Structures are given as C-alpha cells and as structure tokens.
Amino acid sequence: MSDTDNNNSGNNNSSNNNSGNNNSGNNNSSDKPARKPMSLGGPRGGAGARSNFSKGRTSAVVVEKKKRRLVNAPGAPAAPGGLGVAVPPAPEKKVDQDAIAARRLGLSKEEYIKRQQAVGKAQAEKTVRDQARADERKALAERDELDRAALASRKEADALAAVEAARIAKEEKAAAEAARRAARPIAGGPIRKPKPVQAASDKPEPSADPAKPVPDASALERAGGRIKKAKPQYQKQNRSRKNEPTRRRGKLTIVSALAGDEERQRSLASVKRAREREKQRRGGSNNDKDKVYREVVVPETITVGDLANRMSERTHAVIKYLMEQGDMSKADDVLDADTAQLIVEDFGHTVKRVAESDAEAEAFTPTDDDDDEADMKPRPPVIAIMGHVDHGKTTLVDALRTTDVAGGEAGGITQHIGAYQLKLKSGETITVLDTPGHAAFSDMRTRGAAAVDIVILVVAADDGVMPQTIESIKYAKAANTPIIVAINKMDAPEANPKKIEEDLLRHEIITESMSGDVQTVQVSALKKTGLDNLAEAIVNQAELMELKANPNRRADGVVIESKVAKGRGPAATLLINRGTLKRGDIVVAGEHWGKVKAIMNERDARLKSAGPSEPVEVLGMDGAPAPGEAFAVVRKESKAREITEYRQRRRKQANAAGPIDAATSMEQMLTKLKDKSVDEMALLVKADVQGSVEAIRSSVEALGNEDVRARVIHGAAGGINESDVMLAKSADAPIIAFNVRANRQAKDLAEREGVEIRYYSIIYELLDDVKGVLEGMLAPERKETFIGYAEILQVFDISKLGNIAGCKITEGKVERGAGVRLLRDDVVIHEGELSTLKRFKEEVQKVVAGQECGMGFENYHDLRKGDVIECFTVEMLDRKLD
Question: Following DSSP, what letter does each residue of 338-373 receive, concatenated?
Fold first, then answer.
C-alpha cells in the first residue's frame, strides 16, 4: 500500500471516528451494543482482512477506502457554503522524459540526445547492411538454383541419351539373335531362307500376302520339323533413381529446418566443386598450361629445399620424386650437381651448371675492358717506402708529411704498414705506404711492393746495401714495379753515395749516373734536404706511367692492414685501385664481409666516399681480413655470404687434407713422438694488427730445428680476453701480447690459472726471448775428449779389491775419475769409471805416458792380459739455435 493510500486511510479513519463520536452522542441508550473491532462505518465499499496469531487466535480488520472529492471539478456539485467561485484547474506539469533518462544514466541532456541520435544512425546503417546482405543471399540463391536446374537438365539429357543407346544396342542384339535362329536348318525339311527380322514388338506384323498364311508352330511340328523354344530372357531392370528422392545435400540451416523442406539447399562450396569437376571433365586439367618452365642454376652442391625453391616446385614433390628413385632424402640433405641436374630435367626445366668459384671469379677478376675510355680519369700514384731497418724510411715520410710519426714507433722502427696521402708543394697528391724494414716483416714488404705503382728504395749513405735492401729489390722486380733510389743520411760525415750506386749495380740496379734508367736522389730526412728533388722524381715517373682509373664503378683493391679496435670492432685499411667506395657498400675481403658503416682517412676524419688510390680505414666487417687479401664490392649480401662461405669451406678442406706426404711420413712422425725427439713450444699470439700477427707467427715458427720448435696455436688481432686465457691454459702455452694489453677480468683469470702473459712492443726482443726458451728446451750436447790409452801387462788378483790391471800408459794420460772403456781385439767390452789408480802403492790423480800404474774398474773384474784401456772425459755443452 502506497503512502497516499495510507494518508487517505488515516483521514478516513479520523472522519469515521468523528462520526462515531457524534453518533454516540446522539445515542444515549443504556444498552450499548458490542463494539466491533476496528469498525469503520459498516460495509460500504470496505474490505476485510484477517490476521492469524499463535494458539488459534485470529483478528479481523475492516478497511474502508474513501474516494477523494474534488472541489469545483467539472461536472461536480458546488462546494459547500455556496460560494460559487470557480477554482481554475491546476496546470498539468509536463514531464521531460529525455532529462529523466539522461539523469538516470548519469549524463547531460545534450549528451543523451547525441547518444540516441548515434544509436539511431547505427541502427539505420545496420538495417541497410542487413538488407544488402539479404539481397545478396537472395541473388546467390537464385544463381545457385539456376545452376542446379542447368546441371539437372544436363544430367537428364545424359540419362536419356544413355537409355536410348542401350535400347538401340538391345534391338541390334535381338535382331542378330533372330537371324542366327532363322538360319539354322530344320530336321527333315528343306532349307529355307531366313525371313527378314521383324522389329522387336509384342505382336508379330501381319503377312504381306494374305493368301499365304504364316505357319504356326503346330503346323511345322506336324510337318516333321522341330522348333527349339527359346528360353525366356529376363531383362535386367534398370533401377533408376531418377524418380526417387535424392539424398539430402547441402548445409542444414534454421530456415530450411523450420520450413520443413525434405531436400536441403546445396552449399556454395559444393556448387564450386561441381563446376570445377565439370570444367575438368570438359577441357581437362590446365596445370601443364599454367606451369612455367625456367632456367635453373645448379651449383656444385645444393640442398633439396634450395633446389625446389629454384625450380619453384614444392619441396615435398622433390622428396617424393627422390623416394620413387629409391633415395630417402630430407629437405636439408645435400645433392651433388649431377643428381640435381637429373631432377631439374625430369621436372621439365633447363639446367645451367655453375661452380662455386664462379661467383668469386666474377667479383674478383680485374677486367679493364669493361671500362670506357671516356670514364678513365687520372689518379694519384701509390708509392712504397722500402729498405733496410733503421735506414730512415719513416723519418723520410715524416719529412714529406711534416709530422712526427717515427716518434710514436716503439724502438724507432716501423712494425706495420702505414698508409698516408700527401699533398706536395707542387699541388700533386701522392699515396705513400711505409713498410717495415725488419726481417720479420718480409710478408708486409711483399704486399707493399705488389700493391703500389712506384717503389722508393731508401739506402743509408753511411751503411750501404743491407740484407733487407736486397730483399726489397727482389720484391720490386718480382712485381715489375719501377724503383727510385733515395740515398738517405747524406748529412752523415761518412756518407759515400758513389759506393751505394756501385753496390746497387751488383743487384742489377743501374742508376742514371751509370747510364741506366733508375733515378737516384740524395736526401737527408733529418735536415730535410733534397725533398723537392724526390717529389719531382716521383711526379715525373707517374707522368711516364700515365696512371688512370675509372671512378664510376664498384670499388676494388687490396687490404693493407687490419685490426680489432676496442669499441669499434674489426677495422681494415684498404687501398682502392678502381671505383669509388661509399658508405653502405657490401665489401668482401678474404673470408670476411660486411656493410661499410664508416670510412676514415689517416687523420681519423670521416668521409662519405673514397676514390682510386686513396687509403682509407673501413668499419663494419664481421672480422679482421688477412692483410694482402683483395677486396671487392658486390651487389647483394647473399653473394657476399656465398663467396665467404665457399672460401671458409675451401680452407677447412685444405686443412683437413693436410700435406701430400703425410701418409708416407706417418711412421716417422710416430717414431719421433715415441722417442720424444721433437719438443714443441706452444704460443698464443695477440697483436694490435693482423699483419703483426702474421709476422710473429712466421718468424717464431722459423726458429726451431729438428729437436725443438715453436708453434702458434692461435693468433689474432685485438686485446687479450678471458677466452684467450682459457685456451692458453688448456694448451699449456704462454700468451705473447704485442702492443696490446689484457683486460682486468683476463688478468685476474690468468693469475688464478697460472697462465703467463708476456708483453712486448719491439719484435726483435720477442724473438730473442722465444729463441732463448727454445734453446733452454734443447738437451745439452755430450762431448767426449780422449785423453789417453793404456795396455794391460799383468792382472793381479787382490782379495779385497778384486782384479787389478798392471798397465803401461802408451799415449796421453789417465786421470782418476775419468771415463774408461775396455777394448779387447778392438771391441768395446765394458764402459765405466776407474775405482782406483795407484802408482807404487799410492793413490795418484793422473799418470802420464810412459809410466806404469795399477788400475781397477768399478764393479767389473774380467780383465785379461793384452786388453787396451781407453780413457776419456765427458763434457756437457749447452746447445744453441742457428
């Protein structure tokens, strides 16, 4: 019951109470009637309610509802009191449903209206989309119905044609059977001609001649003939399913299920499959027409998966073909070129056989024929400063550069190739390679002579032609490189340039002063005299050579030096022969490749590109290439990867094959190992550049002999790390650090593991130490010196001492404690030491020739008259390496 009803009830109750009071006032009778519980004026429009309590008690309540009387309402009587004033009705309050709904959702009215508009718009769009989908489904259903009708008509036509063909074949068969029966002769009667075969029908046709009746079977039988009754032929019933209900096809949907259709609609996929089968039945498969036949490049080895990709075939198809041939292969299995060629040909493609070295030859074969003469531009000459150690090569370059590079070299000698580009006072630009002069760097000098256009042979005027000078001359002649002789140290008091020219004449270097073609320039790098003449000689020689290169092509050249720089990774110094090297180019050098990330010159200035005859340092390689390797720029990373993988595989195969005479010398090697006649010293070498590693390796391994030798188990450019320490620990080898240092972790690990690290900055100090260790490994040499001979004249048997030989010294002398040999008929019977040496019963230290003495041997007493005793001393000498 609402609050309004409660109020009304309250008012009614109060009114009824008043009425009750009045009534009771008027009714003063003594007999009061029993009070009704909660009576509200009798049963007019009232309603009763009963409540149940415990113990069977009940309570009845009568509730009366009283309508509200409206004052001066239309059609109602006037208000009591007769005022007659019309009260205007209260204006109806207009309820804003939008505001109420917005307030219920916690939104403003404007937001609610906008939301309703958006919802209405979305519902309208959804209705449009649903209608479009319905139209599309209807159109698709109509098209499917047409396709089904067409397919049914085609099937019906095919069935009718098949029935007609069967009927015609049956009639022909029946006619043939009737002709065969008619041709068979009747027993006892004449042979009759076969009658024409009647058409298959239920009743025979009447005879053409009515006067001649057709004989029936009874007449023929009476005439003595006999008719063979044909067995009834039961025609096989054609159980056609044409009129039977077809099987339920298609996808069952709610619409079809509610519609109660016995036959389902076919799905779109089923219709598409039927169309495809019909198309294949009519025109056949078009796979052969759509297949593309191509030229397949087949290398020396290729995997099954790679071959399938090159043929644009599926890998499982190639594997299936191999299984049919009896070869169980997988996609990762490697095929040789012949097998791959057979597979490609069987799949209908053409084959192009290539070798793995073709890619390398294509990228690294220098061909100037491809360059147009119009594209050839003059390039700066590349010169190499070569000569003996400490003849002033780097000082001469410093004088040309007006810098002090030599001051930074350890020991005052150059230990790796320095590449610089100089601009002369005349405006000409030259590229200079400063090669080492020490004997350990012969490989560097070889690379320097092969990579340059002109060789500047530096000879000290006070020292003359030395071994490395002669070696540099040989390298220059082998590379067919012109030579300019620079006689340095002309400021020295003992300088003799005439003697230098005469010494060079012995090595076929004929100077211009001796009617030759080799230019000679006298300079002093310390006093900086004669430098202009040297620069002029270089420019003149370059003009005669007419050096040109094409800068508008992919760059190629040679690796001068390489190293692993801390924080920068592998860095390679390249000398460009042709083309222009740019950032982003893909460079292949030896067994390493990479994309150029940075190009820097000798002053560490970053460049965007570098042209011919320009030495630059390149970052971005995946490793430090070996110095002297040719480099080239390729187009794709796949080509670079292919070349490097081929080179690495070739190196591994060469290392696995070993030397040719390994099998023949196996027995000798085992014998040496068994006798332990060869002691090996293992070394681990880390240097600042790769060229220094090679120089140390070749020099150290050349120090040994047939008894001892040194072997570099690992050599690389870069600092010493923990992996180097662990490798040295496993090989029991010291670490040779040349111009590099170990990091803190590697140093601590080396101390814990007991690995020795030796630091060097000058190569000849390193070689001296290694040579000293090898010499210490040599077994000392045993040197015997014969000092005398004695002849046994008489043998005396002494109880306490045994046999004592009475001897006479025939040659030299005999000393106490010296080694002796007993000779009998010039055969050594015993070798040992003397136990006693007496003369006239006294022990003496030595007995000289012509005297007699008594000698006893330690632990040996088989002495006879006439034996000869040979006496010698043994000296152990330390051995030296040559």
Answer: HHHHHHHHHTT-EEEE--HHHHHHHHH---STTS-G
- Contact yes or no for 794/788 (Cβ under 8 A): no
pLDDT digits (tens, 9 = 90+) for 579-598: 999 999 999 998 899 999 99
Longest CA–CA separation in the chain, Å: 196
Q: What is the phi/psi pair of residue 675, to 5°?
A: -80, -10
Higher pLDDT, 37 or 200: 37
Quick one: tokens of 472?
């540099």
Can you read off the two tokens belonging to residue 179? 């002709």
Of 423, 406, 408, 407, nearest in space to 458 by CA: 406
E strand or H helix that includes residue 484: strand 483-488
pLDDT above 70 coverage of the chain, percent: 71
Averaged pLDDT score across all residues of the chain: 75
Q: What is the DSSP string of 407-450?
A: GGSGGGS--S-EEEEEE-TTS-EEEEEE---SGGGHHHHHHHHH
Tens-place pLDDT, residues 13-50: 444 444 444 444 444 444 444 455 554 444 444 555 66
Residue written as token pair 């050599």: 715
Reference 384, options 396, 399, 370; nearest CA is: 396
Are residues 510 and 518 in contact, defined by beta-carbon separation less than 8 angstroms? yes
Return the DSSP state at 720: B
Q: Can you read off the two tokens belonging to residue 243?
A: 């009129």
Q: Please calculate the CA angle 83-88-93 and round it to the nearest 5 degrees.
A: 150
- The DSSP 8-state label assigned to residue 56 in this structure reads G
The continuous run of DSSP H or E covering 874 comes out as strand 868-877
Instruction: Report how far residue 19's alpha carbon sits from residue 449's, in angstroms, rounded to the nearest whole number.
Output: 142
What does the alpha-carbon distance between residue 535 and residue 428 come to, in Å, rounded to a whole number?
9
Question: Strand 301-303 vs strand 852-857: parallel, antiparallel, or unpaired?
Answer: unpaired
Q: Cα–Cα distance between 588 and 596 in angstroms, integer?
A: 10
Alpha-carbon distances, residue 730 vs 122, 687, 741, 754 (angstroms): 77, 21, 21, 11
pTM (2 decimals)?
0.50
- Signed CA dihedral, 25, 31, 36, 42: sign only: negative
471-480 contacts, C-beta under 8 A, 24 or more apart: 471/442, 471/445, 472/386, 472/387, 472/388, 472/445, 473/504, 473/507, 473/509, 475/386, 475/445, 475/446, 475/448, 475/449, 475/450, 476/386, 476/449, 477/508, 478/449, 479/449, 479/450
Nearest Cα neighbor of 432 from 407, 411, 403 is 403
When computed from its CA atoms, the radius of gyration of the chain, rounded to whole angstroms, is 61
Task: Answer positive or negative: Cα dihedral of 686, 691, 697, 700.
Answer: negative
Residue 720 burial (C-beta neighbours within 10 Å; 0-12, 13-18, 19+): buried
Alpha-carbon separation of residue 347 from 303, 311, 320, 321, 826 (angstroms): 16, 8, 12, 9, 88
Report the C-alpha gap between 643 and 648 in whole angstroms.
9
Render the burial of 437-452: b for 16+ CB within 10 Å, e for the rest. bbbbbbbbbbbbbbbb
* C-alpha to C-alpha distance for 419 and 558, rounded to whole angstroms: 12
